Amino acid sequence: MNLGSLSYVEIRNRLNTPGLPLSIGPFRFRIVSKFDSIAEGLLRLYSEYPLASEGEFVDYTVEISGSKGFRRWVQPQAIFRFDGVEPFSPLPANHAFPLMEWALNWCVSTQAHQYLILHSSVIEREGCVAIMPAPPGSGKSTLCAALVNRGWRLLSDELALISLSDASITPVGRPVSLKNQSIDLIKAYAPEAVFNSVTPDTSKGRVTHMKVPSEQLLRIHEKARPRWVIFPRYVSGAAPDLRPRSKAGSMLELGRNSFNYMVLGRTGFETLSKVVDSSDCYDFSYSQLDDAVAVFNQLVERRND
Amino acid sequence: MDKSSEVIRLCAVAQLHWVGWADEYVVFEESSGQTHHLDAFRAFVLNATLEGDASVKKLLEEITGVMAFESPQAADQVLSSVIKEFEALGLLERAFV
């Protein structure tokens, strides 16, 4: 039974009490909230995700609640609560949906140590995964959204979940986070894509999320193996430029982009070395999405050369 | 101290795990949790300590037999600075035997 089988009112009621248990990739979340914007966003972006059964084990309970007392009336806030603590500062109430998305990321990146977790976009084509770690502002999510709308399968926009036993990558398959100019760019690039409403004035500027294409959600439990590690960088006016980079240097950089490499110790080192060993590593700069997609498609065509 | 009696040795608590590609290596030191990126020169020096004390004089002879330096002093300076790096990282220590 998918979330979309519930009406908007049913979603809103279940979010309120006892919480909505939702399967997202390998995780089960219970989302608790009274915000209408969360019910609306879930219905728009998560309608094809399975509802977990009542009584089924839930990995993380994420509560996005409103402020109380005077704050309820003046500049109301959205507050993320997890196991009785508030990991983030409260945000304006109209930021409730992106706050929920950031909270889901936080839960996985701070707790799911059964995986080596990299801060990275991860996409796949013909069984081969490209890991794209990059700092904010590098154009990573924009490029990821473009590729996902041109035949590449999304495993994750934010978190690479790498198996500690065989270095395969487990899809998370959550909506792609876009901000500022990237929103209009991807809306124009993929008019058929589904987006949530735009939240203005967040700490990251204007933000929204793009729904994962339906056919890709059908493969959400299909793992894949790393084949490329690509560090993308948007450079205004630049021609696409894909340059090999050192594997050892790439491994260090991936370690720096990991949420739990240090937590995992030797296991993290061995897992990351498997990822790099099986991957060609590149720096990639680009300015035009079509050019970038062509370069990525060439990598697939030439993967056995 | 007599330079010929100088050795370097792996710090007692250090446990190294290596991977390498081409002429670059990544070494994980388990007791500190630190990961280090080594070029071939540094990898050679660190590797020389894996089976016990390594004579600095012999290392210098091996290095100058393969690499060209302006003078013996220049080679000595390069090796000394690499050993200092490893000392600072808590990987190696010097001793005189």
Q: Would you kindly provide a written description of the structure presented here, covering whatever features stand out?
A:
The complex is a heterodimer of chains A (305) and B (97). With 305 residues, chain A is α+β, with helices and mostly antiparallel strands. In chain A, 31% of the residues lie in helices and 29% in strands. In chain A, helix 7 packs across helix 9. The longest helix of chain A is centred in the middle third of the chain and has 16 residues. Chain A is globular, with a radius of gyration of 19 Å. In chain B, strands 5-1-6 form a three-stranded antiparallel beta sheet. A three-stranded antiparallel beta sheet of chain B has the order 2-3-4. In chain B, strand 2 and strand 3 form a beta hairpin. Classes of the chains: A alpha+beta (305), B alpha+beta (97). Chains A and B meet through helix 7 and helix 9 of A and strand 2, strand 3 and strand 4 of B.
Helix content of chain A: 25-40%
Seen as an oligomer or otherwise, the chain set is heterodimer
Helix-strand pattern of chain A, N to C? HEEHEEEHEEHEEEEHEEHEEHHHEH
What is the string of SSEs of chain B from the N terminus onward? EEEEHEHHE
Strand order of the largest sheet of chain B: 5-1-6
Instruction: Identify low-pLDDT runs of chain B.
Output: none
The unreliable regions of chain A are: none
**Rg measurement of chain B, Å:** 13 Å
Number of helices of chain A: 10
Question: In angstroms, what is the radius of gyration of chain A?
Answer: 19 Å
Largest binding interface between chains:
A-B, 16 and 14 residues
Structure annotation, total helices of chain B: 3
The termini of chain B sit apart by: 10 Å
Shape of chain A: globular
What is the makeup of the main sheet of chain B?
A: 3 strands, antiparallel
- Strand fraction band of chain B? 25-35%
Strands of chain A, total number: 16
Estimated share of beta-strand residues of chain A: 25-35%
**Classification by helices and strands of chain A:** alpha+beta
Helical content band of chain B: 25-40%
The end-to-end distance of chain A, rounded to whole angstroms, is 44 Å
